[in-house]
Amino acid sequence: MSYMAFGQQRTFEKPLEQQAILNIRGKVYEKDTRAPYKDVEVLLNGGGYVTTDADGIFHIKAKIGDELTIKHPEFTTLYYTINSDERIFIEVVGIKPSQKRSKTITETSRFNQSLDSARAYLKKDAEKSIQFIGDALNVDVNSSQVAEAHELLGQIYDYWKQYDLAISAYKVSLQNKEKTAVKLKLAKAYLRNGDFKTSLKTAENINEATLSLDEKTRWFEGIGDAYVKIEKFDLAITAYQKGLKFAQQQNIIPKITDLNSKIAEVYSQQGETAKAKKYFGNALNLAKKENPKRAVEAQVKVAEFNSRNADYDGEIELRKEAIKGIAAIEKDSIINNASAITAQKQNYKIGNAYLLNNDFNSAIPYLEKSREEAGKRGDLDVKLDATRKLSEVNARLGNTEKTMAYNEEYKSVVDALYAKKIQEISQAARFSRSIAEQQNRITSLESDRALSKSKYELTQERNKRQELIIYSLSGGLILLLIMGYLMFKYIKQQRLANNLLALKSLRSQMNPHFIFNALNSVNTFIATNDERTANKYLTDFSQLMRSVLENSEEDFIPLKKEIELLSLYTKLEHFRFQDKFDYAIEVDPAIVIDHFQIPPMLLQPYIENAVWHGLRYKTEKGFLKIHIQPKSKDEISISITDNGIGRERSKALKTEHQKKHKSKGMHNIKKRVAILNEMYKDKVDVSISDYQTSEDAGTKVVVTLKKD
C-alpha cells in the first residue's frame, strides 16, 4: 500500500493547545485510475470524524500536529499528520477482489497470535499478557473475537487476584457474546472479590439446561461456596451433594475429591464431627489415588481438622506422612513458600501440636527443623513463628542461654521481615500502576471502537435517509439526540472509571503511609521495652495490619469493622504513650451500627494527628475521646476530641521543613471524601475545629455519616 500527500510545510511557534483551529480540506483517490473514494472514514485523534463524499472530498477541523486516520475496507489504514492548512491529496492503492480475503485472514492470524502470546504469559508476566490482549483488540475484530479476548483478560486478572478488573472483563465478554462458561467464571470472580450475594445471584440466573455435565459440577460447587460464605450451611451441603453426583457420573476424580473435602469442612463448621470424618476419609483415600501433591494437600486438610478437634496424635501422624510426600514432590518441582504444603510449615505445626500435648522435648526438634528450612527457603514468616516458639519452649524448660539466643535471632528476623514487607508493598504499588496503565489502554481502545462504530453506523443511516429524501428533518434531530446520549453516557462512564482508579490509587498510597508510621512505632517500642511486652505489641500490630490490608480494597466497610480497627489502633498508640493520654471509645446504644457503612481508614488519620501533634506535646496527661451518637434518623455523628495543645501551637512547634510538607494522610482523606461524595451523593461530611478556649485548645473532628 502506498500513498502520497501534497501540501506546504509551515512552522508554528505556539504550543499546540494555543494554536488556531484550521479548516482542513482533503481528497482521497485511487493512484492508478485517480478515481475518488467514497465513504472513506477520516478520524481525528482529538475526536473529530467525517467521511468522504462521492467526489472523495472531506472537510475536518484540526490543529497543526494533529493526526488523521484514513480507513476504508478496500485499502490499508493510513495515518497523516497535519503540517499546514493547505489542501491534502491522498493517493491510495486499492485492494483487488482476490486480496480482500487474504486481508481478513491476516488480521485473524494477528488476533489469534496475540491471544496465544497472552495465554503463554498468563502465569508468568501479567503486564505482558495484558499487553498482548491490547494488541489483539487493536485490529479489526468482530463481537465474537472481542468476547474471546475479554474472557481471556478476565482469566488473567483472576489469576493475579485483580478480581474487580476480572469482573469488568467478564461483563464486557458477555455483552458481546452470551456464553455459559463465562457466566460461571463471572460468578466465581464475584465470590473471590467478596461479593457473595451477587455471586450467588449470578450463578442462580444461569439456565441449568444450558450446562454440560462438567459445567453442572462446577456450577453446584460455586453455589455451595457462596452459601458457605453467607453461612447457609444446609443449602451449601445440598449444592455440594448435587455437584458430587454429577462429578461421580463423569468420574471426575479431582472434583469428587474436592467436593468430599468441602462437604467435610461444612460439617466440621456445624460441629458434626462424625460426618466430617467420614467425608474427610473419602477425600483422603481418593487423593492418594490421584497424585502425590493431591495426597499431601488432603493429608494437610485432615490434619487441620484433627487440630481443631484436639486430636493432636492424629494430626502429628498425618503431617509426618505429608512431609514424606512433600520430599517426593520436590524431586520434580519446587513448592512456593505461599503454599500450605511446604515442609517448614508442616514441621512447625508438628512442633506446635507436641506443645499443645505438653510434650516439649518432642516439639523442639521439629521447631528447629522448621526454623532451619524456613531460613534456607527465605520463608521469614515461618522462621519468625518457629524462632518465637523455640524461645518460649526453652524459657519454660529453664534454658536461659538458649532463650536469650533465640530472642536475639527473633529480633533480627523481625528486622528482615519488616524490610521484606516494605519491599513487597512497593512492588505491589508498582504492579497496580502497571496493571492500571495496561487496562487504560484496553479501555481506550474499546471506547474508541464503540464510538467510531456508533458514529459510522449513524452516518451511514443519515446518508441513506438523505438519498431517499425521507424524514430528513426528523432524522437529523434523532441523530443529534442519539449522539448526545452516547457522548453523555461515554463521559459518565469515563468519570466513574477515573474516580475508581483515583480511589484505588489513594488507598494504595494511604496503606504504605500508615504501615510505615505504625512500623516505626513498633521498632521504637521494641528498642525500649522488654521482649515479652514487645511480642504482645507485635501480635496486636500484626492483627491491625491484616485488618487494614483486608479492608483497603473497599470503598466502604461496615461501621462495626471500622470501630474494631480503631479500638485496636488506639490501644496500640496508648500502649506507647501511656504517660501522655488516656482514651475512651463510646458508642451510643441507640445506634444500630450494622446499618451504617464507612470508608475504611477514614478516622485513623485524625486519631493519629490527635496523638502525635496534640497530646504528645501536652505537659500534663491528656484525654482522647471517640464518641459515636445519632444525629438524626438516617445520620450519625462521630466526634474525635482531644485536649492537646491545639492546631496553632502544633504548627508553631514544627520545623521549617515540616511546615513546607503537608500531611499526606490528611490530603488523601480530603480527596477520598470528595470523590466518594461525588459518587455516593454527599454521604460523608467532615468538620474540624478547636475543642476548647483554654491555652491547650485541643482539636475536635466531627464526621457525619449517612445511612445507605
From TrEMBL:
Transmembrane portions of the chain: 468-488
PROSITE patterns in UniProt: TPR
Domain Signal transduction histidine kinase internal region, first and last residues per copy: 503-581
Superkingdom to which the source organism belongs: Bacteria
GO molecular function, one term: kinase activity
Sorted UniProt keywords: Kinase, Membrane, TPR repeat, Transferase, Transmembrane, Transmembrane helix
Record SMART domains: TPR
TPR-type repeats, residues: 217-250
InterPro entries cross-referenced by the UniProt entry: Bact_2-comp_sensor_kinase, CarboxyPept-like_regulatory, HATPase_C_sf, Sig_transdc_His_kin_internal, TPR-like_helical_dom_sf, TPR_rpt
Protein name: Histidine kinase
